[in-house]
Fold this sequence. Notes:
The structure holds two protein chains of two kinds. Helices cover 22% and strands 42% of the residues of chain A. By secondary structure, chain A is of the alpha/beta class. By secondary structure, chain B is an alpha/beta fold. Chains A and B meet through helix 8 and helix 9 of A and helix 2, strand 7 and helix 3 of B.
Amino acid sequence: MIGYARRQPVALAASEHSAERAAGLGAGAVERVARRRNEPAWLREQRLAAWREYERSPEPRWQRGIKGWWLTDLSRLRLEGLRPVLFSPSVTGLSLPQGTAAALRHQESGVGVAEARDWAARGLYVADLARAVRERPLLVGRYLGGQAGVAGDRLLSLAAAFWGSGVFLYVPEGLRVDLPVDVSANFTTPAALLGWRTVVVAEPGSSVTLSEEFLGAEGTGALLGAFSEIYVGAGASVTYATLAGHGASNTVLAQHRAIVKQDGQLNWFATNWGGATVREVSEIRLSEPRARLEMTGAFFADGGQQFDGTATVVHEAKQSAAEILLRGVVKDAARAAFAGTIRVPAGAQQVESHLASHTLTLSDQARVDVVPSLEIAANDVRVGHGAAAGKLDEEQVFYLMSRGLTRDQAIRLLVRGFLEPALTRLPLAAARERVERAVEGKI
Amino acid sequence: MAGELRVRDLRVSVEGKPILRGVDLTVRAGEIHALMGPNGSGKSTLSHAIVGHPGYKIESGSVSLNGENLLDLPADARARLGLFLAFQYPVAIPGVTVANFLRSALAAQRGGAPVPPREFKRLLAENLDLLGIQEAFASRYLNDGFSGGEKKRLEIMQMAVLRPRFAILDEPDSGLDIDAVRTVAEGVNALAGPELGVLIITHYQRILDYVRPDFVHVLLDGRVVRSGGQELVRELEERGYDWLREEAASGTGS
């Protein structure tokens, strides 16, 4: 499932693209990436530290500690067969999609950029991360790597050492950007090692929406490591949506981290339907009083896909509030697991937090497990969780069929209805339509 | 035969238990039939078996619509031939709005062609009005949190939108107050006509004061033991079902 160089020699030799490739993996190759990009010393040191972490971390084995849970064994993964792919720094113009404040279109041949001038003039800064490092090194240096961590994680370390591209979004104090920023990245190189980093900084009192979509070609067998680091300042509001339609044979590891300050609000929407093996680990810190999180997850796994998600909300401050809503569908022989944790340390009083998960299993071979856990040390809190796991309701199917819908049409309508409470929260209408189409294609 | 729903010697079991023991019934286009009978007599089993619920096992007999054998067809194919069941207990489908559901159903009835938005909007408005339902109803999730009366009205409203040729109404009056019964009955009357055959299943004569049946049948222990006209409704109201059971036991029933 992962790209072995030996498995796809023809594709490698024949591929013609302008993306840079660092030859081989090693500390020397890391240095070459940093040198070729004229990166500042702190960034080169970040990459090298990640490489050292890679060298001392064990081979990955993803295992759930609960009896009967599935195991993804990646120890046979031939990482040395992967080639780091850096996106070409060339920038091309792009017409601004309607109803957006800015847009980035990452292809391996270069980045398409469009931005509304008035927003830029008021201080909104959106750029491909490599360009942001060149243009605003001090600003980027303050935030990049401030939350992400790769200790003990061999695959994420590798992606952090060789990251090629990403997004840097900065909203100055008080600026309320009422149109979304629309980013998409299309990964097409076979057996690629891809590192992607997203940094969103919303200064106090600002607001912004970022929609980030990942696409990938079929059969590329790539490894993608994606990091996001979100900083929500006091009284700021950030809506962040990731739409993940990764290539069908890709292995994806994502690490999302966010910190929300006093009276700040983070609306997080994560959806996934692509990739062969996808592991997503999210950690949100509500670090100051009245910080709020609304997190919505939706996924649809079919074929032999394996999705593994973990979300942890840490209520570090009193009166912080969180609501997590998850809707997941599994079909065929797909497997999915979600572990949601609400953590309330001592002293964080008057916290409200709720986790609700609903899963739908469309076949006997598919399996989905949800494990909520509450770690609560404060005594004046309202914290709870609810989980519902179900199969297709045959009475619902029959009702729809009795009105003339075929069984397939009935199931399609039911699955859409099942995901509706999650999808309806998606900030970008066009993105929502794409997700719905992708879901339709799977039913 | 054209223009009729025909049930012959239908025997149906549920989870191995025989429920229908040889039912004969013919409903022609333009006719309204009432099927009455005590609890457990098999009324709902008959309606579900006719429309093709997979939980009801057909042991023998036949059901045809306009000469076409229905028993080999799945429920959706029967519906597309013009068969409709207004459910006694319609299921809730959270996440699917009434409007979205109706548009999907209408498209399916028309062989998959999408319904033009303007036409659909008009159809929806007309038929919501017919059943005295507020427009906001259309954007609610199907039967989700609906009152009993709302569910029943929505069933009849679907019938109005989908225009079946034969409709079975399974206790469209149960659990309704008298005003709601009248609204439902008026909806049925508005749709009745020479093109439509109707079979109303009910316990009570109440709705039959508004929807006048041409024929009345009594189902008892899985068989139609008596058929007649409207006068049978009064007789049942006065005498109950026991005399029919006794007649059936002594072999003098029709």
